Amino acid sequence: MKISGNRFLRALSIGGLILGLTVSDRVGAQPVVVAQAKVVSFPVVLEAVGTARANEAVEIRPLISERLTAIHFQEGEHVERNALLVELDATQARASVASARAALVESEAQLARAERLREAQSLAQAEYDTRLARRDSDRAALSAVESALSKTEIRAPFGGRVGLRRVSIGSLLSPETVITTLDDTDPIKVDFDVPETALAHLAPGHRISTRSVAWPEASFVGKVASVDTRVDPVSRSVTARGVLANPESRLRPGMFLTVVLLREDVQALVVPEQAIVPEQSRQFVFVVGDDDRVEKREVRIGRRRSSLVEVHSGLNPGDRVIAEGTQRARPGSLVQVVDEISVADDGSSP
Q: Which of 229, 263, 297 is the last residue of a domain?
């Protein structure tokens, strides 16, 4: 195909003009290093301090005022549920039971005679009702004194370890007297506070690991059992409760524990930390488009780890952001990409 001289010169002039503009634009382009926003494994690691609490705990007290006559436990020993711990003087209670039983026997005999007389139509209905009421009253009285007698024996409400004995045989006890304590510490609970921002990563069943200064080489592993329904409006934190196996009773109620919650199954969109440009309380990144021009975008960020920052909104996977050279970047300007930082799938970066 033949091209006329004028048409060829015109095409050559236009091409030269475009090439000239392109080269001119490239001459002023600032060199930058970019990184791609990438979805990677980004485990959640929450650290907190907590307090150990017994699974069940109670102060052993009498329900009546009476003299202590026998002690059936040793300090620090483990007892089973319903085990007899102490006995109180039951002399008066036993006498009351015997008297109530005798009164019941008498009232039942009188009621039986009244029933025979009523069948023979020799007893008024009112008299029969009186004897019936007496029998029922004596039954109730016997139940009351038997209940009082049972209170002279104090038993363990659940299995656990008893604490120090605080009374002696012969002491006159009252309902305000603490005889000892009883704690069920296997499993043992740990209460710890986490910021409300971590609520999305906190749920029953998540694994926790704890340490105590008393056992610096040991790690006590458990799981989150429950999370409180309310957030503290002052501290903006929420209390979570974990449960730990404690077969050797090394952890005790009241101990200070450090708690680490680890979730490895979390994926997150991340960028290098140096790509984030803070402006007052807002966070921005410079995005490099396919035409190598810069766009400034506001982002909402989350956790930070290993020089990476989690991005909740404002970016899409694959977006190129300026990691080095943000000081020279301007919205709409042309940049020259001289290198690219890669982020590994496990969330590590060189």
A: 263
Q: How many domains does the chain have?
A: 3
- Over the stretch 229-249, which tens digit does the pLDDT of each residue have? 999 999 999 999 999 999 999
Maximum C-alpha span of the chain: 148
For the stretch 112-153, pLDDT in tens is 988 888 888 888 888 888 989 999 999 999 999 999 999 999
The single-letter code of the amino acid at 12 is L
Residues 117, 123, 128, 130, CA torsion sign: negative
Nearest to 203 by CA among 121, 155, 261: 261
CB neighbours of residue 156 within 10 Å? 20
User: Do residues 299 and 249 both lie within one domain?
Assistant: no
SS3 133: helix
Residue 166 lies inside a defined structural domain of this protein: no
Hey, is 176 helix, strand or coil?
Answer: coil
Tell me which residue of 53, 111, 116 sits closest to 259, measured CA to CA.
53
User: Are residue 253 and residue 236 in the same domain, yes or no?
Assistant: yes
Same domain, 188 and 253: yes
